[in-house]
C-alpha cells in the first residue's frame, strides 16, 4: 500500500564561513529549501526526523573555526549547523528505531534532518518530563555535570566547592549535586538575576557576580576563607588563575570548558599553575562523549529527583529556528539564563 | 668518665636578605663562628652532627623569598640556609640515633649542625654505595623520580614519555625508569654535553637542546610524531605550553617543578590548557614529602639496580662550603651537569 508523501520546504540555519573572534548573528543565515518530498532515500539505513528542540552549547564555538584533529568536527560553511537536539522519527531505515520514536542526539539546525548514523542517538523512554529537558538535564549537559562532578571531582561531605558559569546548563546541576553530596558550594555568574537564582532556586550557599569583582582572588578569599577543595571549571582564563591561588591541599579541578577563552584569538595566559605542586592539586579535563555508557545509571538517579522536585532546572527557551543564531551567540555574552533551548516545533 | 670536648669554629653559609629575581652569589655570605665547644646543649633531644654532603635543589629558590603558608618555610635572613644533606652523628640526645650513625635529611649549610627534630631524618643503612648518593638517587630526588613517574604518571609499556630538565638530579632517573618500563623516552636539556649524556649514558631514545630550538612545538612534533602520553614536568612556562599542544588522548602530566619560572617576578602565562579537555589529560602536582613512607620500598628496588649497573647516576660535585653559593645559583642557569652536590667534609 503506497503512502502519500508530504511535500515540504526545509528551513535551515547555515554557517556562512569560518568565524574569527566573537561570532555574530550575521555569520549564519536562514535559508529555506525548494519544495521537496519528505522521504528517506531508498536503501538508507538512517532516519528521517522532524526536529523539535535544538540545544545551544558553548563548545559549538570551536566548530565555527576550521580545526584539524579536534575532538569535534568543524561545521561546514554553506551547510546547516549540527548539534544536540530532540527529534521525532518520521521514517526509519534502521532496526533500532521506528516511526514515532522520540530521540535525542546529533541532528541538524533545520526543520527536517536525515541522520545517516543513528547508532549514536538515544531513544527517549521517559516522556512524562518536559521533552526539552533532553537538551539539558536529561541530555549532554546533565551527563556532563554528573560525570564531571561525581567522577572527576570525587566529592566528599563537607568539602568546599566552587562552580563558575554556575547558572548555565551544567553549572546549575553541579551546584545542586554538590549540595546533595553535603558540600558547601559557591557559584559565580554574570548578572544579579543569575546570582539570585543560584541562591534562591538552586540552593547554592553563596553566589557572586564576577563582573562586579575587581579582584577575583579577593572575592574567592571572601567566600572561601578555608580555600577550595573542588573547582568545576567552565570559564578558564582569569578565573582559573584566581582559583589556583585559593585551592586547598589535594584539591581537584575538573576542566569541563573554558567559555571565556573561546572567542579570543590567543587564550589568556594562566600564571599560577605552580600551585598544582604546592597544593598537590589534580586538574583533569574530560569530555562527556567518553562516558555515555553511564547514561542509564544517570537516568536512574536523576528522573526521580526531577519528579519529586529535589532538583530544579531552568531553561531559556526561544521559539523558532529564525531565532536560533541569536540564541547561540547569546551564550558567549551570557545573555541566556539557564539552559539555552530553541524550539523548532512543539510536536 | 668525662670526655674531652673538641673546640671548633663553625663555617656557615648565611642568607643576607630575601631575594628578588635571579639570585646571586652575593645574596649569601660565608661566616665563621667564634670558637666554641662541640657539644649538644644539656637536656637536648636533638642531634649534634657533622655535615658531609649538602644538596643543591631547585625548590630552594622559593625559600629565598618571604612567603607565608608555602609548602616549605622561607629561609631566615641572617641565618644559615638549610636543606637536604648527609651528616654523621657526633652526639645524640634522641633514642633513635647514636654517635657514629650516618643520616640524611634536613640539616644546615654549615660544618656542624644541631638538629632539634631528628624524627624527620633517615638513618643510612647501606654504606656500600657512595654516601653522596643520599643527596640524589638515594635521597629526595630519587624518591621524587620514583613517586612522580611510577605513581603519578602510571606508565604503560610502549608509551611516549617526555622529560624536561632531563639530565638533572630527578630527570636522569625518570628517563631510566621510563626505559625500564618499556617506554619510548625523549629528554630536553640545555647543552650539547647534557644531550650527549642523555643519549649515551642514560639510554634516552632521543634528546634535544631546547636552547637551540626556535619553536618548541615543532621540536616536540619532530620527536613525537604520535604525540606524548606522559610528560614529567620540571620546567614550566613555554615548554609546558608546547607540550600541551602535543599531548595524546588520556595523557598524564606529573608536575614536579617549574624551574624556568622560579626567578621571574611574574610567571609566564600558559595558554594551551584547553588541551586538557580535548585530550582528556590529567595534570597532577605532587610533593615528595607526602610519600616518604614508601622509601623502604624504593630502596629495595633501587639498591640492586645501582649495584648491578642497570641505573647510572651522574653527580656534579664541588668541594668546600665556600663554593656552595655558586653551586646553588648555578642550578638556575643550568651550570650543573647532573645532581649538584657540595662536599663539606669527606668524613
Structure description:
- The structure is a homodimer of 347-residue chains.
- Chain A has 347 residues and is of the alpha/beta class.
- Chain A has 2 domains: 160 residues, Medium-chain alcohol dehydrogenases, catalytic domain (Quinone Oxidoreductase, Chain A, domain 1); 150 residues, 3-Layer(aba) Sandwich (Rossmann fold), CATH 3.40.50.720.
- Chain A is built from 9 helices and 17 strands.
- In chain A, the strands form 4 sheets. In chain A, strands 5, 6, 7, 8, 9, 16 and 17 form a 7-stranded mixed β-sheet that branches. Chain A has a 6-stranded parallel β-sheet with strand order 12-11-10-13-14-15, with helices on both faces.
- In chain A, helix 2 packs across helix 3.
- The two termini of chain A are 26 Å apart.
- Chains A and B meet through helix 7 and strand 15 of A and helix 7 and strand 15 of B.
Key features of this structure:
347 residues; 2 domains; Quinone Oxidoreductase, Chain A, domain 1; Rossmann fold; 7-stranded mixed beta sheet; homodimer; alpha/beta; 22% helix; 17 strands; 6-stranded parallel beta sheet; globular
Question: Which helices and strands appear, and what pairs or packs with what?
Answer:
2 copies of one chain form a homodimer.
Chain A: E1 7-8, E2 11-15, E3 28-32, E4 36-37, E5 47-55, H1 60-63, E6 82-92, E7 102-108, E8 112-115, E9 122-123, H2 140-152, E10 160-163, H3 171-180, E11 184-189, H4 192-200, E12 206-209, H5 216-223, E13 228-233, H6 237-244, E14 247-255, H7 275-278, E15 282-285, H8 295-307, E16 315-319, H9 324-330, E17 339-343
Parallel strand pairs in A: 10-11, 10-13, 11-12, 13-14, 14-15, 16-17
Antiparallel strand pairs in A: 1-4, 2-3, 5-6, 5-8, 5-17, 6-7, 7-9
Keywords (chains A, B): Oxidoreductase
GO molecular function (chains A, B): 2-alkenal reductase [NAD(P)H] activity
InterPro entries (chains A, B): ADH-like_C, ADH_N_2, ER, GroES-like_sf, MDR_fam, NAD(P)-bd_dom_sf
Amino acid at each position: 500500500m503506497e503512502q502519500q508523501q508530504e511535500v515540504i520546504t526545509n528551513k535551515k540555519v547555515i554557517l556562512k564561513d569560518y568565524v574569527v573572534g566573537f561570532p555574530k548573528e550575521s555569520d549564519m543565515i536562514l535559508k529555506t529549501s525548494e519544495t521537496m518530498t519528505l522521504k528517506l532515500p531508498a536503501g538508507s539505513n538512517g532516519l528521517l526526523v522532524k526536529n523539535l528542540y535544538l540545544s545551544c552549547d558553548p563548545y559549538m564555538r570551536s566548530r565555527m573555526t576550521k580545526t584539524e584533529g579536534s575532538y569535534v568536527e568543524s561545521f561546514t560553511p554553506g551547510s546547516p549547523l549540527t548539534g544536540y537536539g530532540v527529534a521525532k522519527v518520521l521514517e526509519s531505515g534502521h532496526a533500532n528505531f521506528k516511526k514515532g520514536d522520540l530521540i535525542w542526539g546529533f541532528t541538524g539546525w533545520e526543520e527536517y534532518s536525515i541522520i545517516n548514523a543513528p547508532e549514536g542517538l538515544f531513544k527517549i523512554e521517559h516522556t512524562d518530563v518536559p521533552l526539552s529537558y533532553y537538551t539539558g538535564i536529561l541530555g549532554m549537559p546533565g551527563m556532563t555535570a554528573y560525570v564531571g562532578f561525581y567522577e572527576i571531582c570525587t566529592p566528599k561531605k563537607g568539602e568546599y566547592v566552587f562552580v563558575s558559569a554556575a547558572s548555565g546548563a551544567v553549572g546549575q546541576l553541579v551546584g545542586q549535586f554538590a549540595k546533595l553530596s553535603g558540600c558547601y558550594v559557591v557559584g559565580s555568574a554574570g548578572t544579579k538575576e543569575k546570582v539570585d537564582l543560584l541562591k534562591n532556586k538552586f540552593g547554592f550557599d553563596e553566589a557572586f557576580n564576577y563582573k562586579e569583582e575587581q579582584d577575583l582572588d579577593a572575592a574567592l578569599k571572601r567566600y572561601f576563607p578555608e580555600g577550595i577543595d573542588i573547582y568545576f571549571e567552565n570559564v578558564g582564563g582569569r578565573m582559573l588563575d584566581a582559583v589556583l591561588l585559593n585551592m586547598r591541599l589535594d584539591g581537584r579541578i575538573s576542566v569541563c570548558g573554558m567559555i571565556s577563552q573561546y572567542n579570543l584569538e590567543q587564550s589568556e595566559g594562566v600564571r599560577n599553575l605552580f600551585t598544582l605542586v604546592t597544593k598537590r592539586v589534580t586538574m583533569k579535563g574530560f569530555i562527556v562523549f567518553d562516558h555515555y555508557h553511564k547514561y542509564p545509571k544517570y537516568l536512574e538517579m536523576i528522573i526521580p529527583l526531577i519528579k519529586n522536585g529535589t532538583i530544579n532546572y531552568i531553561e531559556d527557551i526561544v521559539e523558532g529556528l529564525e531565532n536560533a543564531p541569536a540564541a547561540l551567540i547569546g551564550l558567549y555574552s551570557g545573555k541566556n539564563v539557564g539552559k539555552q533551548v530553541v524550539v523548532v516545533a512543539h510536536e
